[in-house]
Amino acid sequence: MRTTVRRHLGKVVAGAATAVTGTAVMVAITLPGTAGADDTAGRAGGAAASAAAGQQGGAGGAVPPAVVEAAPAEGDRGTGHDPLTDDEIRRAERSALSRQMMTAGEDVGGDRGPQRLGVDLAEPDAAEADDPNAPRRADVTYYDYRNDTLVTRTVNLATGTVERTGTQHGVQPPLSPEEQTEAARLLIADPLGAGLKADYRDATGKELTSPDQLLLASMVYRAVPGAEPAALDQCGEHRCVRLLPKVKDGPWIDARSLVVDLSTRKVSRLAG
C-alpha cells in the first residue's frame, strides 16, 4: 500500500531512482527505496535455500554460530598510506586552525572561525612518492564564509607543523553535515519553505520545525547566467545548495526547485 499525499513542492518521492535536472546538466541521483514485494520474495527464496541445505546436510551439517571478533585496536599513528587515525585527525585539526584564522574567519552559522569541511591524508610530494619513510601529512579544509574562500592547510603529522596553506575562490566541494543542517534551518524558517512543511505535514501529520526531523542529502548549486533568478547569479562564488530532504522513516520530499545561498543566508526558487 502506498500513501498518497497532496503535492506542494512538486512531488513526494516514495523511493526508487529519480533524475535531478540542473540548469545545464542532468545528474542521476539514486534514492534509497523501501522494502517491497520483490524484497520479500528474495527473503523467501533465501529461506527456502537455507532449508534445503539443512535437509541435505542432516543433523551433522548444521552451521556453527558466527563469531564476531573485536576490531583491532587503532594506534595513535598510521604508517605509509594507511587511513588517518582518529588521533591524527584531532592533532591535524588542532595544528591547522591558527589563532588568526579563528579570529578573522566565520563559519556557516556566523560564529567565529572558518567552517571545517574535512581532514584527508595528503598525497606525498613528488620527490617522496617512492620513499616508504616519507612523512605523513594531512590536508585540513575549511570554508571561510567571511570572504567565500576555500582554505586548505597541510599539516606534517610527525611535527605538527603547517607546511603550506592554499586558498581558492569559486571552488565548492561537497557540503559538510553542519552546512546541510544550516541550509535546512534557513529553508524551514523562510516563506519559500512553506511547501516543504506542508509536504512533511501531509506525510507525517506533524509540523516540521527543525532539521532534526529530516534526513538530509545535498548538491552544491552553481549559477548559469540567464537561467535562474538574479539572486542566484553569484552561486559558485557563493556557497549555494539544493537540499534533498527525507522524512525519517518516510518518503523523500522533492525540494529541488529551491536553492539556499549560505553566503547570504537567503532562499530562492529556480525559474521554470
TrEMBL record:
Keywords: Membrane, Transmembrane, Transmembrane helix. GO terms for biological process: amine metabolic process. It comes from the Bacteria. InterPro entries: Cu_amine_oxidase_N-reg. GO terms for molecular function: copper ion binding; primary methylamine oxidase activity; quinone binding. The chain crosses the membrane at residues 12-31. SUPFAM superfamilies: Amine oxidase N-terminal region (SSF54416). Gene3D superfamilies: 3.10.450.40. This is Tat pathway signal sequence domain protein. It comes from Streptomyces lasalocidi (Streptomyces lasaliensis).
